[in-house]
Amino acid sequence: MRRLVTWAFLLFVFVQFGELVPVSAAGPQPRSKAAAEPQSKQGPRLAHLYFLREKGIWATEAGIKIDGQLVGSVSKGTYFSIEKPSGRYAITCVNPVSADYETEVQIEAGQTYYFGVGTRQSGPPGQSLLNQAVSGSSGRQLPSTSPIKGAMAGAVLFQIDPAVGPAIIGQLKPQ
Hints:
This protein has four helices and ten strands. The chain has helices at residues 2-17, 125-135, 147-152, 165-169, and strands at 46-53, 62-66, 69-74, 78-85, 87-94, 101-107, 112-118, 140-141, 156-160, 173-174. The strands form two sheets. It has a six-stranded mixed beta sheet with strand order 8-9-7-1-4-10. A four-stranded antiparallel beta sheet has the order 3-2-5-6. The longest helix has 16 residues, at 2-17.
């Protein structure tokens, strides 16, 4: 019984704080253009999306899919960016050890969006602060399209305020 409890605890810890195997081990991934461009250089019909993983005590690599298509990955202290036309998109944070976290967002042309990967904020405020210190992201946690899968996800998506996003990107490395 003690062995079962030990294994259950270890599984819980790995699901809470990330993956054991990097997403890159699952196969080759396309790399997106990572250079930060001023918003004025964007095409008028495209939105600029940044995906980032802020620094923390523990943060592992997570893949990002848009409408089921892998567009890149972020690990601790990195970001990448892509451009997309206006529309509603399903954005998924892929974690090979736990459930994927999917949310839907509306993107408008000419705008810049910042999405952070972090640990789910749930439970008492103290637990959420601890989660953010360990491997969290700033911003507002985006709602999951599936409450059950969202509750089982080891990494979730946050939307970061556009006024704060450039300062955060300035502290990270391009992926």
